[in-house]
């Protein structure tokens, strides 16, 4: 038995700083080890409790509420103060039967806040329901969040369980002072862009990442909340300059660009905007409405630093011309990411390159062409050669004068494998293209995937 005590005694003899360094080496998902250390001694309990409860994994939320809702000594409300990140699994977030005393404690806690259906009767009904309705699925999350006031990041994994005809997170907005730390929200849909309108005016929110935001069909006989009255309209709910959001990412989505306008009117100073448009079978959804997007970008032309607009179609001349209305006015824009341009005829290549060079902002530092969502039908030998000629012509146009003094890098990412870029290799002629850019003081980079990290904005 003495030998089993050695690791414990050795760890307890180390200074706190060294123990924390050791804990930093443990994988975040190694909960059993962290739990064992937490139960070893009072000192290790104090050193590990923040890490053990920092992330709520999204399962059995009602059991956690059963622990933190009742006051001491029947419960342990202090545990909830350690939660910094909530990963919400709607498919698993179905409340089981809680003791009436726990439900009463939850209801008493909710009386301190402005939350819908916070009476004991309604709370009891919802926490004892065998099959919660889609309207109450988001309600459970709102209730849970009111018990974790120090949460900084929220990730919703499957919002498709929720009612997409109403606004979400009204309770969060109504109790905004309670969420003084929440700065990042990620939601995996499908969802409608209108669903998240209440979140945008949360004073602390800086980063919003949405996946599969779509213009879905409306259920028959079921009205949208934002169409129910003039006071519920998105533009009325938001108001000009009401949102402090800085980073908006909308991936694998298909949105009517007009629905973005109330959002961009509300942003006080958006720093980055990423939109990945994936068309649906409906004809009007297939293409990005650049004209309408330009209307949105006009509202943020003095604050945007990063802009990425990608789709599953090539960038045509008209798209470049539309973007050219606003890009030169973007005085802070440092990085721009677009689809590669369409080149129908070899003779058009210099004109297309000249048009691109003339439309981008003087402040730009990095210009990226991304093949991420480009349709496979593009990838033929002629296009490979024409795109290489386009890059060469672009280097020539940029080298003609000092119009783009800050531009130092052109990047081509997600270059198709059968264009010649296998692992560790570059497309045919890539070295020659790099020399063309080097001759005018620019760097040409090629990569199979984007060099950025998923949480790059959160690390700033």
From TrEMBL:
Record's protein name: F-box domain-containing protein
Origin species: Neocucurbitaria cava
Lineage, top ranks: Eukaryota, Fungi, Dikarya, Ascomycota, Pezizomycotina
């Amino acid at each position: 038995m003495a030998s089993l005590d050695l690791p414990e005694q050795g760890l307890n003899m180390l200074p706190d700083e060294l123990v924390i360094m050791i804990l930093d080496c443990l994988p975040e998902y190694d909960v059993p080890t962290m739990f064992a250390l937490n139960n070893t001694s009072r000192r290790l309990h104090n050193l590990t409790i923040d890490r053990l409860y920092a992330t709520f994994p999204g399962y059995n939320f009602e059991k956690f509420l059963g622990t933190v809702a009742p006051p001491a000594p029947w419960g342990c409300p202090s545990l909830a103060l350690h939660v910094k990140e909530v990963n919400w699994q709607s498919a698993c977030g179905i409340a089981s039967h809680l003791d009436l005393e726990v439900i009463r404690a939850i209801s008493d806690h909710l009386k301190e806040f402005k939350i819908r259906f916070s009476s004991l009767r309604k709370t009891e009904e919802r926490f004892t329901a065998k099959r919660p309705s889609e309207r109450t699925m988001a309600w459970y999350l709102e209730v849970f969040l009111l018990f974790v006031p120090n949460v900084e990041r929220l990730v919703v994994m499957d919002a498709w369980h929720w009612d997409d005809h109403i606004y979400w997170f009204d309770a969060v907005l109504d109790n905004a002072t309670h969420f003084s730390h929440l700065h990042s929200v990620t939601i995996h849909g499908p969802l409608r862009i209108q669903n998240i309108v209440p979140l945008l005016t949360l004073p602390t929110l800086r980063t919003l990442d949405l996946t599969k935001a779509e213009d879905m069909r409306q259920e028959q006989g079921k009205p949208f909340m934002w169409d129910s009255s003039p006071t519920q309209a998105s533009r009325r709910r938001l108001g000009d300059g009401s949102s402090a959001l800085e980073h908006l990412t909308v991936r694998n989505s298909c949105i009517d660009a007009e629905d973005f306008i109330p959002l961009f009117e509300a942003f006080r100073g958006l720093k980055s905007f990423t939109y990945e448009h994936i068309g649906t079978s409906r004809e009007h959804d297939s293409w990005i409405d650049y004209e309408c997007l330009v209307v949105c970008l006009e509202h943020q032309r003095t604050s945007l630093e990063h802009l990425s607009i990608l789709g599953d179609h090539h960038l045509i001349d008209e798209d470049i011309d539309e973007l050219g209305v606003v890009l030169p006015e973007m005085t802070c824009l440092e990085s721009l990411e677009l689809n590669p341009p369409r080149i129908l005829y070899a003779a058009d290549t210099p004109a297309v390159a000249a048009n691109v060079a003339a439309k981008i902002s003087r402040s730009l530092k990095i210009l990226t062409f991304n093949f991420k969502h480009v349709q496979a039908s593009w990838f033929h030998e002629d296009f490979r050669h024409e795109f290489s000629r386009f890059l060469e012509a672009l280097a020539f146009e940029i080298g003609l004068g000092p119009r783009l003094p800050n531009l130092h890098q052109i990047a081509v990412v997600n270059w198709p494998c059968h264009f010649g870029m296998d692992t560790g290799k570059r497309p045919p002629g890539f070295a020659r293209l790099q020399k063309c850019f080097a001759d005018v003081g620019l760097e040409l980079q090629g990569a199979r995937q984007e060099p950025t990290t998923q949480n790059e904005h959160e690390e700033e």
